[in-house]
Design a protein that fits this description.
Number of strands: 11
Strand order of the largest sheet: 1-4-8
CATH topology of the largest domain: set domain protein methyltransferase, domain 2
Order of helices and strands: HEEEEHHHHHHHEEEEEHEHEHHHHH
Radius of gyration: 24 Å
CATH class of the largest domain: Alpha Beta
CATH superfamily of the largest domain: Rubisco LSMT, substrate-binding domain
Shape: globular
Distance between the termini: 64 Å
Length: about 400
Amino acid sequence: MSFDKLVNWVNQNGGFVSPKLAMDETDKNNRSMYAKEKINSGEQLFLVPPLLCIQSNDTAPPEVPLPIQRDYQLIKELLKQWTLGDKSFYEPYLSYLPSYSSFITNPMYHLYFHRQELVLVQKISLYAPLIQQKLSQLDLLIQLMLNEPIAQQYSATTNKSLQEGVLYAYLLIHSRSWNDFGLVPIADLLQHTYKSTMFLEPGTKMVAKVEYEPGQKIFDNYGVIDDMLLYLGFSFYETKENDMVELSLPPYDKKETQLDQFKVYWLSQLPHRKYVLSSKEIYPPIIHYLRIVSLSDKDMSRIIWNDTKPFYENLISLENEVEVIKQLIYLVSKAKNFNQEMVDEANKTMQLFSPSSVHYHFAKLTLVHEKIFKNNIEVLLQNWLGILQVPFDVKMTLSGLFK
């Protein structure tokens, strides 16, 4: 269970880990990476070959639903490697993973064993249906895994129940894996902050973007993530000035006209696939998406083409921008399906429960998200009035806008 042992394994198998990296293991359940020596911007921190990443190339059985196929394959692979024990090629990595007991504060772990508490979660969180869906998927994963020969081998070899093995693997996957790479040794030891500009790059490598002084902690960025999804997967969320909540945008798949085909093409070129509402600003990728969707035939002659930035980053026309804001106000108001009863219940829960409880955090995030929706609606209405250039003081409501 040694970091040095893990580093040696990576280095001996075609990878690279900077000798300037070290681990702070004061808290076994909250380890962090730091700079042992000064690290300059542009220095490579590590490179992990695909051979060392835990992935699965097996095809999931046809009875496994598509949304959980990736989980199924990775869980099966982890059970296989745990069954091999010391003989596993990945043993230096597996032995350094956080223990099963370290997940006791994870909200999914807690609710898995305390399902009756979902009744309260339904009163204080819009995410209750998503949590219930995740728990149902976890139940199905355990049930389906019973049909795999590795299930019996795992229990017989490790003296642990299949339920524990699948739950442990599920929690590891949802807190330590990357969609494209699987479980990546070394990379999964870095903690997240939204302030970091360092991401895991193609080739499973990471390069320092700033200088690090000796003793300074090193953080990467997991990307744009809804605060609640961050909490459900990683057992934490950041208290920050720019909280985020994910927004679902309507898919556009019409291909009847040339304009439709033009829209579909440019939507496919957008660099972002996740869209969030932010407490700090209206997230530009949402505006870009809606500008494309709202294009009219007249707008096609107004598009400004240049080599410096895509056309959708510029204001295209007054009509287009009006439609963008109307659609966004509608989407935000539709997504904001809080009622005052839920907000009141969340405030009450924060007073009744300990700050270390999952209920406290669910309630706190509900109030954070309620504030994000409120701020975004206010900004959008002001933008609307600005476009209209209303020459007198007026207060506009959502109901008035959509009459």
